[in-house]
Design goal:
The protein has 12 helices and 12 strands. The strands form 3 sheets. The chain has a 6-stranded parallel beta sheet. A 4-stranded antiparallel beta sheet has the order 3-5-1-12, covered by helices on one side. The chain folds into 2 domains: 16-132 and 292-301, Quinolinate phosphoribosyl transferase, N-terminal domain (Aldehyde Oxidoreductase, domain 3, Alpha-Beta Complex); 140-290, Aldolase class I (TIM Barrel, Alpha-Beta Barrel). By secondary structure, it is of the alpha/beta class. Residues 38-128 form the Quinolinate phosphoribosyl transferase N-terminal domain. This is Nicotinate-nucleotide pyrophosphorylase [carboxylating]. It catalyses: nicotinate beta-D-ribonucleotide + CO2 + diphosphate = quinolinate + 5-phospho-alpha-D-ribose 1-diphosphate + 2 H(+). One of its GO terms (molecular function) is nicotinate-nucleotide diphosphorylase (carboxylating) activity.
Length: 303
C-alpha cells in the first residue's frame, strides 16, 4: 500500500498552533490534570504492549481531520511517557469514502492507541461531518459558477479545524474572524447612522482591511457601492428580489468595477441552484459548521 499525506492536497492545513491547543484541551477533559490517567487502559494493558489499529469509516461521506491523528497520538505518548505511535494514512483528507473503508492504520503502544482513541475520533468525526455536509452544497452548485462559503458560526475552539474541513468538502472560507475583514451589518449601520457613515468609519480606522456590507434592500446595496464597497451580502432576499438586485448591481459594473455578491440567510440545499442562477458569486451557509452531524468513524484494534 502506498503511503499518502494526511492533509488536503495543495492546502496548508489548519493552523498547527490552534490544533495543538484543541488537542491539549480535549486531553485535559479526558485524562484530568496533567499528566492525567486512563484508569481502565492503564490497569488492563501493559505499558510495553505493542499493537495496531485501523481508523475506519462507519458511513459514506468525505473524510477530513486526519491531520489531527498524529498530533493526538504524540500528545498522549508525551503525557504518559510512552513511545510514540506511527500513522500510515490510506486516503487523504477531502476523499469521498464508503462505509467500511480504512482511512489510516496506527501502530504503537496499545495504551497510547486507546487513550488517544476518543479524542482523535471526536475531532476527525466532527471535521469529516463538516466536509461531508459541505460537499453536498458544492455538488449542488457545480456548474453554476457560484461557490459555497462558510461563516463565523463555528464551534468555539474548533474554528481552524472546521474551516479546514469546509475546504476539504469543496467549500470556500470567508473571513476567519473579526480581525481580517470588516463586515458592516444592520447593527453597525444603526450605530453609525447610515451605510455610508459606517463604511467611511471603517476605512478611516482600518484602511488596510477589505470591507463587506450587508444589504437588505436594493437601495442599501446601491448606497454601499457608492460608498466604495466591493463586496455585498444580500441578506434574506426572496429569489425574485435577489435577481433584481443582482441585475442592478451588474448593470453598474461597466463603469464602477466588479462587485462580489453573496446571497445569505434562509438558504437550503433544494433552492441552492435557483439562488445561484441569479448571478451571485457566493452562497454563505452557517449550517456548514453549526449544524453538520458527525461522520461516524471508529478505531478498531487489529493486533
Amino acid at each position: 500500500m502506498r503511503e499518502v499525506a494526511a492533509g488536503l492536497p495543495g492546502d496548508p492545513g489548519p493552523d498547527p498552533a490552534a490544533i495543538a491547543r484543541v488537542v491539549a484541551a480535549a486531553l485535559d477533559e479526558d485524562l484530568g490534570p496533567e499528566p492525567g490517567r486512563d484508569v481502565t487502559s492503564q490497569s488492563t494493558i501493559p505499558a510495553d504492549e505493542q499493537g495496531s489499529a485501523d481508523l475506519v469509516a462507519r458511513a459514506d461521506g468525505v473524510v477530513a481531520g486526519l491531520v489531527v491523528v498524529p498530533v493526538v497520538l504524540d500528545a498522549v505518548a508525551d503525557r504518559l511517557g510512552l513511545g510514540r505511535a506511527s500513522v500510515e494514512v490510506v486516503v487523504p483528507d477531502g476523499t469521498r469514502v464508503a462505509r467500511g473503508d480504512v482511512l489510516a492504520r496506527l501502530v504503537g503502544p496499545v495504551q497510547v492507541l486507546l487513550v488517544a482513541e476518543r479524542t482523535l475520533l471526536n475531532l476527525a468525526s466532527r471535521a469529516s461531518g463538516v466536509a461531508t455536509h459541505t460537499r453536498r452544497w458544492a455538488d449542488a452548485l457545480a456548474g453554476t459558477g457560484a461557490l459555497v462559503l462558510d461563516t463565523r458560526k463555528t464551534t468555539p475552539g474548533l474554528r481552524a479545524l472546521e474551516k479546514y474541513a469546509v475546504r476539504c468538502g469543496g467549500g470556500t472560507n470567508k473571513r476567519m474572524g473579526l480581525y481580517d475583514v470588516a463586515m458592516v451589518k444592520d447593527n453597525h449601520v444603526a450605530a453609525a447612522g447610515s451605510v455610508t457613515a459606517a463604511v467611511e468609519a471603517v476605512r478611516a480606522r482600518f484602511p488596510d482591511v477589505a470591507i463587506q456590507v450587508e444589504a437588505d434592500t436594493a437601495d442599501q446595496a446601491l448606497e454601499a457601492i457608492a460608498a466604495g464597497a466591493t463586496f455585498l451580502l444580500l441578506d434574506n432576499m426572496p429569489t425574485p428580489l435577489l435577481a433584481e438586485v443582482v441585475a442592478a448591481v451588474r448593470a453598474g459594473e461597466a463603469t464602477g468595477g466588479r462587485i462580489e455578491l453573496e446571497a445569505t440567510g434562509n438558504l437550503t440545499l433544494d433552492r441552492a441552484r435557483e439562488v445561484a442562477t441569479t448571478g451571485v458569486d457566493y452562497l454563505s451557509v452557517g449550517g456548514l459548521t453549526h449544524s453538520s452531524p458527525i461522520l461516524d468513524l471508529a478505531l478498531d484494534l487489529t493486533a
